[in-house]
Amino acid sequence: MSEIISAKKEEINLDPKETRISVKRKLEPYAFLLPSLLLFGLFVYYPFFKTLYMSFSLTNAHGEFQEFIGIQNYVEIFTSTDFINSLVVTMQFVVITTIPSVVIGLVLALLANNKIKGIGISKVMFAVPIAVSSASASIIWGIIFHPSIGMLNNILKTSIGWLIDPHWALLSVAFVTIWMNVGVNFIFILAGLKNVPREILESSSIDGARYFRKLFKIIIPMISPTLFFMVFMDIMNAFQSFGQVNILTNGGPGNSTNVLVFSIYREAFFNGRFDTASAQSIILFIIMFVIAIFQFSYEKKGVHYS
Amino acid sequence: MENKKSNIMLLIANLVVGLLIISPILYALSVTFMTTDQIHTMPPKFLPKNFFLGNYKDVIAAVPIFRFIFNSFLVATVVTIGQIITSCLSAYAFAFYEFKGKKILFIIMIATIMVPGEAIIISNYLTISSLNLLDTYTGLILPYLTSAMGIFMMRQYFLTVPIELSEASIIDGCTGLQFLTKILMPISKPIIGSLGIYMFLLTWNQYMWPLLITSKPEMRTVQIGISMLKSAEVQSFGMMLAGIIIIIIPSIFIFIIGQKQLIDGMTSGSVKG
To answer: What's the CA gap between A78 and A96, in Å, rounded?
Structure first.
């Protein structure tokens, strides 16, 4: 492609009248990139370096710089039981949301991956959670989880305080998150199944034992790139969860659902500590960065065993 | 025969699981038609006694819900159009031009994927606040007017368009910008549609950013406006859910009509064969 361009340029340069056009074409791409570059500069790079800078500073309650204090904010957060607890809670949250999200997504995709008449409607139903915001999902589930008049306790004949009992709160928030993830996981895994030859999927749909052997020996290895992609995507999403925690539990009871982003939010906007909140943000960034590096190296190796 | 029977079984299994997944939404819809007394009956009922519309009247009276919808609609529309414009411009430069610094500029833009929005949201809040843009549409919109994902997606698509097409139209007297707007963008309609629907839905459902930068009720977006009902002094489940149903309808509507584009957009470039 570049050869064509340079060939054309030489051609054009022979004619002095056309030279102006070629100069203009040289500047044009920069003009086209300018809007995005300015926006990325102002709302990604500047805030990133500002966050890094604030994480080494003392700030006042308005987030204004007071003085440079080195790594003191990091020392403070890593010696704070609240922050360590928040990291532990976040890790637990990531594990208990990611695995079920992918497994349920896979089951739904296997169910819907056929050409039976009327299957379209179930595909829509499987994918609908994509369209539901974290705020809407949280409010609906919050009512279902209500200890006395909620449907869940009524169906299970229990009287569990799903969101107010520290043993259950994180699981309940995770459950809502899994529900929110299921649609996306389903869509991606279904797209991945398109690469599995139809004969492999179809001939196996009758005999149960043979089907499971095929599932684990052939189908899952074949779609493993998609499955790994979804695992990483769900991990990243789990690390960035905020809405459901803010609406369902406010980080409680007793910090049992105080995930990292909620902790950052509370530190900055309720405790007025923009400096330690920035240090926590940098930790979030580092964690996500490491996960992304893992993902890239996996993708390069190719998770394809067959 | 055997095959037909197993097909019916499979279809039934699909429908049962599908209903199970959407049951929270159906239940929410059902509760909106119940009176407060019915909602508080023990044991709770799945279906309303009759078609009670009081909850919808209450939520419309309690909060400026149509204002929230207008706000969200405006913000999501401008963000979507803005992203399409900035993404197409950048992608066009990367796909059709050779220029100094192309590689590094591409890396600078795509690397922004590595910075999670939540990690810089505090700094962005401080920026918007120092520009006196809290509680404004500009503040809600400005940081989201471009995205690495949009640029990457459009570039991937533009690369499949033969460069001779651009060369021919330049020789015909088309400027670069004319080629983009008159030829390239019209033939890229499907992918622009995918990007647009995805971005609209994402912005409509946004939670943390509008929560931070809006405090006046008339500037709230739907997600924040409705979740505020939860912290109201007198909680009414019926009213809260009526609000949810009102704001969920546009998303589900867009989701159903734009399903194919949305799915193509989400999975493009990420699932390899």
So the answer is: 24
Q: How far is CA A220 from CA A109, A115, A261, B8, B244, in A?
A: 12, 20, 33, 25, 38
Per the prediction, chain B carries an average pLDDT of 90
Residue B1 forms contact with A (CB below 8 Å) = no
Q: Give residues 177 to 196 of A whose Cβ lies within 8 Å of B.
A: 179, 182, 184, 187-188, 191-192, 195
pLDDT at B206: 94
User: What ipTM was reported for this prediction?
Assistant: 0.91
pLDDT mean over B12-19: 95
CATH value at residue B94: 1.10.3720.10
Residues in chain B within 8 Å Cβ distance of A240: 116-118
Residues 138-157 of B with CB under 8 A from A: 142-143, 145-146, 148, 151
The A residues from 71 to 90 touching B (CB cutoff 8 Å) are none
Residue B159's pLDDT band, with cuts at 50, 70 and 90, is very high
Q: Please answer yes or no on whether A285 and B25 come within 8 Å at the CB atom.
A: no
Do A172 and A285 have their domain in common? yes
| Any domain includes B10 | no
DSSP per residue, A253-305: STTTT--HHHHHHHHHHTS--HHHHHHHHHHHHHHHHHHHHHHHHHHHH----
Q: For residue A167, give how far its alpha carbon lies from the nearest alpha carbon of chain B (Å).
A: 23
Radius of gyration of chain B (CA): 24
What value does the mean pLDDT take over residues B245-257? 91
Please indicate if any CB of chain A lies within 8 Å of the CB of B228.
Answer: no
Domain that holds residue A29: 2-40
| A-contacting residues in B 46-65 (Cβ below 8 Å) | 46
**Model pLDDT, residue A185:** 95
Partner-chain contact B24 A46, CB within 8 Å: no
CA-derived radius of gyration, chain A: 26
**Residue A23 belongs to some domain of the structure:** yes
Largest CA distance in chain A: 87
Q: How many domains does chain B have?
A: 1
Q: How far apart are CA A248 and CA A112, in angstroms?
A: 32
List pLDDT tens digits, range B190-241. 889 989 998 999 999 999 999 999 999 999 999 999 988 887 666 789 999 9
Residue B49's pLDDT band (cuts 50, 70, 90): confident
Give tens-digit pLDDT for A99-157.
999 999 999 999 998 888 888 899 999 999 999 999 999 999 999 999 988 899 999 99
Q: Would you put residue A80 in left (φ > 0), alpha (ψ -120 to 50) or beta?
A: beta
Question: Which residue of chain A has the CA closest to B245?
Answer: A136
Please report residues of A whose CB lies closer than 8 A to that of B211. 246
Residue ranges of chain A with pLDDT lower than 70? 1-24, 202-207, 301-306
Give the pLDDT confidence score for residue A202 in this predicted structure.
Answer: 66
Based on the fold, state whether residues A28 and A153 are members of the same structural domain. Answer: no
Q: How far is B72 from chain A (nearest CA, A)?
A: 13
Contact B256 A124 (CB under 8 A): yes
Q: What is the model's pTM?
A: 0.89
